[in-house]
Amino acid sequence: MLYRKIASLIEAHLQSDSNKILLIDGARQVGKTYIVRYVGQKLFENYIEINLVEDALGARLFANVRTVEDFYLQVSMLAGDRMKEKENTLIFLDEIQAYPHLLTMLKFLAQDGRFTYIASGSLLGVTLAQTPSIPMGSIRKVQMFPLDFEEFLYANGLNEFAITAMRRRFEALDALDEATHNKVMDLFRKYLLVGGLPDAVNTYLAEKNIQTVREIQREIHDYYAADASKYGEERKLMIRRIYDLIPSNMENKKKRVVAKSIEDKKGKTFRDYSDEFEYLISAGIALPVQAISNPVFPLIESAGKNLLKLYLNDVGLLTCLLYGNNIRAVLDDEKSINLGSVYETVVAGELAAHGYKLYYYDNRSKGEVDYLIDDYSSLSAVPLEVKSGKDYTVHSALNTFVQNEDYHIKKAFVLSNERNVSSKGKITYLPIYYVMFFSAASG
């Protein structure tokens, strides 16, 4: 099975004395059901899994459940012989967004404490916003993402010893030896093609066939777009349109969403599409990067909502849409192909998966910096520039940015294909794959 870091979090929570119910949120097809099932069956003698989307489309046993006793009665119809004690019985409510009223009931199930519970779903941000009584004190919501690059390395045979050794090199700001660098870069380029959606990764590992991998990615991309169309009937076409525009936006110099281009109408503003953006972000199929004009810690205080970049949640989906079955564009690092948008997408996915809120710097006269992240240890903003070509030392906007004393910048990073680690003033140059070791501290 694929190694997923979230498994240890789920296991620790289920074995703890917490009276909160763990709620796994994330886009469809990222592996939520599989990993909860794996951990649940490992830890609990009596494992009960209820898919609420299937129930909503079929028997509708839970459609009108409003009390804890009614809930137990319906569960007993499906698995009464496995409803034992709290210590050995886990009830997994999968796709809980199908029945928003059950989100409210989590509070009462937690208070009742008769069994151990865990839930998962997609679109939980949207669903919770529409739920009259949000059980925030009774749930612990955790976001799940596609496999990140570290997990992809494990899937391709690297062991904990190797990755720990790499982590130590990163922490010491040391480069890998050339042979190891070449091996990791080879796997990094394959990650750009395959991405981190479990079905695509498993198919790649089993068949090493890019065409079958691409078929899966196209299906998932179409599924995401069609799934979006089921919500908000009045504006479903706009949701689909914005989602379909993400790859082409990535190829533009600014890369940000332009409101008037969504319907090709002048006068349209971001406010006109706020619900559509919220859907794509809450569904986990688009990663938002907000503009910052005053980049001081904490960044959220000066985040602007009118300048927004959206990235696909999986880099494999992007390379599928941009290059199809032509893997040479990525693997051969061809000079004629600009992989800037691909590199930025993989960095966005890594940072989001590691707990960062994503921001970028935008200034009409001083230029743009790809990413800004909060650094809680130094209480300052850290700029990141992502370079896919040979000119990784050319970054005038970043130079101007770090020299501005009003911003109190203590360090900055440039991520590129270059193996060597070096520093010039406040700027440190790192190989692109070291982004897998960036981790947000809790604020």
Task: Write the topology of this structure.
Layout: H1 6-14, E1 21-26, H2 32-43, E2 46-51, H3 52-57, H4 68-79, E3 89-94, H5 100-112, E4 116-121, H6 124-129, E5 139-144, H7 149-155, H8 160-171, H9 178-194, H10 198-207, H11 210-228, H12 236-251, H13 259-262, H14 274-282, E6 286-292, E7 303-312, H15 315-323, H16 328-331, H17 340-353, E8 359-363, E9 367-375, E10 380-386, H18 396-403, E11 412-416, E12 422-424, E13 427-431
Parallel strand pairs: 1-4, 1-5, 2-3, 3-4, 6-8, 10-11, 11-13
Antiparallel strand pairs: 6-7, 8-9, 9-10, 12-13
Keywords:
443 residues, alpha/beta, eight-stranded mixed β-sheet
Description of the molecule:
The chain has 443 residues and is an alpha/beta fold. Helix content is 42%, strand content 18%. It is built from 18 helices and 13 strands. It has helices at residues 6-14, 32-43, 52-57, 68-79, 100-112, 124-129, 149-155, 160-171, 178-194, 198-207, 210-228, 236-251, 259-262, 274-282, 315-323, 328-331, 340-353, 396-403; strands at 21-26, 46-51, 89-94, 116-121, 139-144, 286-292, 303-312, 359-363, 367-375, 380-386, 412-416, 422-424, 427-431. The strands form two sheets. An eight-stranded mixed sheet has the order 7-6-8-9-10-11-13-12. The protein has a five-stranded parallel sheet with strand order 2-3-4-1-5, with helices on both faces. The mean pLDDT is 91.
